[in-house]
Amino acid sequence: MNLKFILPIIVAVIFFGVWGCLAFINTDLNVLPGPIATWKALWADRGALFAALGVDTAAMLLGFFLAVTLGVLTSIALMTYQGLRLAFAPWVTILRMAPIITLAPIAIIAPVSSFVSVLIVTMLACFFPVVYVATPALMATDKPLLDLFTTYRASYWQEITMLRLPHALPQLLTAIKRAAIYAPMAAIVTDYLAGLMMKKPGLGQLLGQYIDAQNYAGVTALCILAALTGVVMAGTVHAISYWTLMHWHDNEHGHA
Amino acid sequence: MTTEPQLRIEGVSKRYANGKAVLENFSLDIQNEEFVAFIGPRGCGKSTILRLIAGLTPITSGQIQHAGGGDINQRTSYIFQESALLPWRNVESNVGLPLRLRGLKAAAISERIRDVLKLWDINHVSNRFPLQLTPGMKVRTSLARGLITQPRTLLLDEPFAALDAIARNKLSADLMKVRQKRHFTACLVTHSAAEAVFLANRVVVLAANPGRIAEIIDVPESYPRKLEWRETDAFQEAVNQVRNALSRVQEDAKKA
Q1: Contact present, A135 and A75 (Cβ < 8 Å)
Q2: Residue ranges of chain B with per-residue pLDDT less than 50
Q3: Interface residue of B83, B101, B109 to substitute, partner A, most A CBs within 10 Å
Q4: Domain residue spans in chain B?
Q5: I want to staple A187 with a disulfide (CB 3.0 to 4.6 A). Which of A60, A76, B130, B236 is the partner?
């Protein structure tokens, strides 16, 4: 086994060791459950936790895919029309930096259903980071490649689909990876606020229940589950990115 | 050679938006299957001439006529200095790109792709991506892509600039061989007097500010020309003629 595998394992062991020690010292406070208590809570409540994750996941995934699709289409429009770009670019920059929590109240003023609320907030949280990166990336296509397509009389859509989009793919996938990390956070915060409208609790509502019951091991287990969801989503995008770009993007070979 | 020129450049001028003249009243007839090389100091508009012929840059005044009329892009292919290969496509796919852009299906173009890959001796790397190619292979791929549309005119914008001397000579010799099989008119922009003399029927020496024809030097040696010809006195004499013309252009520029 080489250092690439050994060193991260050592870091994980140190992390769990420190976590366990801190939890042991703070036993009386009961606010920092140790790794074993957290694992026990996760195992004991696995039914409720995974059911809650399932409730949020459908809306979250749909919101994420809609955000990526609409984000790319919006970027194509902004790239094509200078007027649109001038009008919307400052707002895209501002909204990209807006913390998700400020978007979450939308969940309360849109009392259609919790599913729709989670979907909308997830979509908004993921949409602006995608547009913010995709628009300049689509505009930064190499001039000789654009000239090449001009000499072969490529149509507008041929230029978009066969040149600009694949050319922007490295930056686009990085933005999508970031959006994949935002998605679970947006979904849980929204569910926390809007979850009361749901028949079955999502992770946000379950979080509220755990806090009310002072079940901090449950809270920690839930947070870890949410973080893992983000990691799985970002990891999936990373894998797609690796296999798509491995032949042509130096960074994907690790020797950039 | 026919009496009707393949390309007729008549009184062409090109000015930038700031009024700076790049080319002034430039006229030249290029005969069918002729090989013309443009050489001159920086800023003399060598590449601009090719871009005007290809329709990549609009003409300010004057006109360029292609024999037979019709769509310029059906009749010319442009070979860029940077090879302009799409990094996400392998060699075969890059070479077939112009035909795909014309809407032809993969099955319909596979034979034509095989032909040009063989012509440029790159059939053994057909599945490799640009990142995996040597600079010489990239240029060969670019040339193969240029010829797949069977153009009447090939516009070569310093295609060998990124290569070392040995690779340049080998590719020049191979270009000679290919031209014996595929008969096309060629316009080459180069900084190398030896390359211009080896490849061209006529070497057009340009003066700068604004770009204009200073001298035209005929190279009477018949085709096919072999690398051994470069060792002869006749070749050296022609190269010296071009270098002397370039010196005169530079002297005149200093006096002006």
Answers
A1: yes
A2: 1-2
A3: B101
A4: 1-26+33-67+156-256, 85-151
A5: A60
Q: Is A155 helix (H, G, I), strand (E, B) or coil?
A: coil
Q: Choose the most confident range, by mean pLDDT, from A107-121, A163-177, A196-210, A239-253.
A: A163-177
pLDDT digits (tens, 9 = 90+) for B76-124: 899 998 889 999 999 999 999 999 999 888 888 999 999 999 999 999 9
Q: Which of residues 115-174 of B touch A (CB under 8 A)?
A: 129-132, 149
CB B78 within 8 A of CB A147: yes
For B1-26+33-67+156-256, CATH gives 3.40.50.300
* Residues from chain A contacting residue B101 (CB–CB below 8 Å): 149, 152-154, 158, 162
CA distance B30 to B13: 18
A interface mutation test: which of B86, B139, B145 has the most A CBs within 10 A? B86
Q: Tell whether B88 is within 8 A of chain A (Cβ).
A: yes
The position carrying tokens 């490799």 is: B128
> How, if at all, do strands B35-39 and B185-189 pair?
parallel
Tokens of A142: 């190499």
Nearest CA in chain B to A246: B88
Which residues on chain A are in Cβ contact (under 8 Å) with B100?
Answer: 162
Interface test with chain B among A141, A148, A157, A255, by most B beta carbons within 10 Å? A148
Measured between CA atoms, how close is B219 to chain A, in angstroms?
30
CB–CB of B84 and A162 under 8 A? no
| Interface membership of B54 toward A (CB under 8 Å) | yes
CA distance B116 to B114: 6
Given this model, what pLDDT does residue A256 score?
Answer: 30
Q: What is the ipTM of this complex?
A: 0.89
Average pLDDT, stretch A224-244? 86
Q: Coil, strand, or helix at residue B221?
A: coil
Count of Cβ atoms closer than 10 Å to residue A31 Cβ? 11
Q: Domains plus CATH for chain A? A: 38-249 (1.10.3720.10)
Q: Which residues contact A183 (CB under 8 A, 6 or more apart)?
A: A60, A61, A63, A64, A122, A125, A126, A230, A233
Q: Which two tokens stand for residue A19?
A: 């976590």
AA letter at B168: R
Torsional class of B19: left (φ above 0), alpha (ψ -120 to 50), beta (otherwise)? left
Alpha carbon of B238: minimum distance to chain A alpha carbons (Å): 33
A51-65, A233-247, B115-129, B160-174 — which is least confidently predicted?
A233-247
* CA-wise closest residue to B193 among B222, B228, B170, B168: B168
Q: How far is A23 from chain B (nearest CA, A)?
A: 50
Q: How far apart are CA B50 and CA B56, in angstroms?
A: 9
Q: How far apart are CA B56 and CA B155, in angstroms?
A: 12
Inter-chain CB proximity B76 and A248 less than 8 Å: no
Q: Which two tokens stand for residue B237?
A: 């004499």
Span A170-187, pLDDT tens digits: 899 989 988 888 888 888
